[in-house]
């Protein structure tokens, strides 16, 4: 007995001993009223100090797991562990349709699994080596010393007030009229969209969006049972004639659009088109959910204002965003900016579902933003990504014979091959040569896009970007005759 007690480095020894003894008692290896070794014996046996054993025994006694008898020692107390015969349930049978669908649509599970050492163009996450960890630590310490007690307690469902104020001002600087609007803080963009869809009445049960579009959004639309009407993308944004036709033919509960550095095509909707979009949807009284996720990743050209700026004091746009692509996606902090009354109701939905987003995370993010680190970091990140973007574009032009390449900025490019060339077959062949990318069909609303793929370059070294694209191009040429 006790010979399987193994110590790990970074945990107090008395806690490890306490946990070990507790487990032995709970599992029935030490029986009720059994005498435990004396503190002297056990410290000798395990080569630990006597004080450590004393501390462990004291904690166990306080928890009522052991008891001491003066002059006799320590004994195992009464532990009731009710053991009933175990049964095997079939959980799969008990899952609802949406969960089974979520499982089926879970790209992470279905991805071709890349191995270490491969060149992966799959990710469109930020490059973590760029993360400004030192200043984030500083922001953490500052906020904790100012109000650690407050941020560790329950907070408001709507979000951490200073962050909301900051973001309202941030959106105002972008040109948005914030009068009659408010913000709800969410766990990233994705939860924001989920809360919104969960809150809207299903009238037509239809959503209109760009085709292709963000896979996570498509997944949510499907899980919520919405019928999806995808509209083709042109080089300057959604095909407005097709939108007009669809709006005349059918009703929609809302439209979902990504006007800047669209995922997956990377296209920036022109200002003329932004204007036309607003006119059309306003005429048909259909709300737009604007995804602002990539707005900050502009490398050149003039600034294009969010769609929300076009509606002035109007309330037909729900703007959802996060700093996931430019700051720290692991923080899971995003926001919904919308009509005040709508936010009031979404706040109740948020409270009902998750109480609130971590106040600590919001508070540290606020401090980081407030201290001006974001602007500095953004400058650095933009210049690094711009270089990678230009390199990737240039390499694609040089090595890949594509029909169309799009991507006006952001962290990825989108390639359309000649009709009939299957990007999944290309992927299989490239995988054998150590290169992976995202086949574009997963972003399509209607099963199209078999000849497309997305190249995320943000987390790759320059030489890997070029080498990977060259391998894709050579494979296309040599193995697929393109
Ligand atoms: C179109 C789009 N919107 C939003 C996001 C960010 O989502 P989240 O804030 O939940 O990480 C992404 C991330 O890839 C995206 O591609």
Characterization of the model:
In the C-terminal section; belongs to the class-I pyridoxal-phosphate-dependent aminotransferase family. With 482 residues, the chain is of the alpha/beta class. It has three domains: 13-76, Orthogonal Bundle (Arc Repressor Mutant, subunit A), CATH 1.10.10; 99-129 and 377-480, Aspartate Aminotransferase, domain 1 (Alpha-Beta Complex); 133-374, Type I PLP-dependent aspartate aminotransferase-like (Major domain) (Aspartate Aminotransferase, domain 2). The chain has 17 helices and 16 strands. Strands 4-11-10-9-8-5-6-7 form an eight-stranded mixed beta sheet, sandwiched between helices. It has a four-stranded antiparallel beta sheet with strand order 12-13-16-15, covered by helices on one side. A two-stranded antiparallel ribbon has the order 1-2. Strand 5, helix 10 and strand 6 (227-234) form a beta-alpha-beta unit. Helix 7 (133-151) packs across helix 14 (359-370). It is globular and about 90 Å long. Residues 124, 188-190, 214, 258, 263, 291, 293, 322, 324, 329, 334 line the site of pyridoxal-5'-phosphate (PLP).
């Amino acid at each position: 007995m006790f010979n399987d007690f193994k110590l790990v480095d970074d945990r107090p020894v008395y806690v490890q001993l306490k946990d070990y003894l507790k487990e032995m008692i709970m599992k029935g290896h030490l029986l009720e009223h059994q005498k435990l070794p004396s503190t002297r014996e056990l410290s000798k046996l395990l080569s630990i100090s006597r004080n450590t054993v004393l501390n462990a025994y004291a904690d166990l006694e306080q928890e009522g797991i052991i008891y001491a008898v003066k002059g006799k020692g320590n004994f195992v107390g009464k532990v009731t562990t009710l053991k009933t015969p175990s049964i095997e349930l079939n959980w799969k049978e008990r899952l609802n349709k949406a969960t089974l669908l979520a499982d089926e649509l879970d790209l992470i599970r279905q991805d071709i699994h890349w191995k270490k050492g491969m060149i992966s163009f799959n990710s469109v996450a930020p490059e973590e080596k760029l993360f400004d960890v030192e200043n984030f630590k500083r922001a953490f310490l500052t906020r904790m010393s100012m109000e650690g007690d407050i941020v560790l307690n329950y907070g408001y469902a709507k979000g951490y007030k200073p962050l909301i104020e900051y973001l309202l001002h941030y959106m105002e600087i972008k040109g948005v009229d914030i009068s009659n609007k408010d913000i709800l803080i969410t766990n990233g963009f994705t939860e924001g969209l989920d809360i919104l869809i969960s809150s809207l009445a299903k009238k037509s049960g239809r959503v209109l969006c760009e085709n292709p579009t963000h896979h996570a959004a498509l997944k949510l639309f499907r899980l919520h049972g919405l019928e999806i009407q995808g509209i083709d993308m042109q080089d300057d944004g959604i095909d407005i004639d097709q939108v007009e036709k669809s709006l005349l033919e059918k009703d929609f509960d809302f439209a979902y659009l990504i006007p800047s550095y669209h995922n997956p095509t990377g296209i920036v909707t022109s200002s003329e088109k932004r204007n036309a979009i607003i006119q059309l949807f306003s005429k048909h009284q259909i709300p737009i959910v604007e995804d602002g996720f990539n707005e900050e990743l502009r490398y050149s050209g003039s600034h294009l204002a969010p769609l929300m700026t076009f509606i002035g004091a109007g309330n037909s746009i729900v703007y959802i965003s996060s700093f996931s692509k430019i700051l720290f996606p692991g923080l899971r902090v995003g926001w919904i900016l919308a009509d005040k009354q709508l936010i009031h109701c979404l706040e109740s939905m948020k409270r009902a579902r998750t109480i609130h987003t971590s106040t600590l995370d919001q508070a540290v993010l606020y401090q980081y933003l407030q201290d001006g680190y974001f602007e500095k970091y953004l400058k650095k990140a933009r210049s690094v990504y711009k270089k990678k973007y230009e390199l990737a574009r240039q390499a694609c032009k040089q090595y890949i014979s594509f029909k169309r390449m799009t991507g006006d900025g952001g962290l990825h490019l989108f390639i359309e091959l000649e009709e009939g060339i299957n990007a999944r077959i290309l992927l299989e062949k490239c995988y054998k040569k150590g290169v992976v990318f995202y086949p574009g069909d997963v972003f399509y609303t209607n099963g199209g896009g078999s000849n497309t793929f997305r190249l995320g370059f943000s987390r790759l070294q320059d030489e890997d970007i070029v080498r990977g694209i060259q391998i894709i191009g050579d494979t296309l040429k040599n193995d697929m005759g393109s």
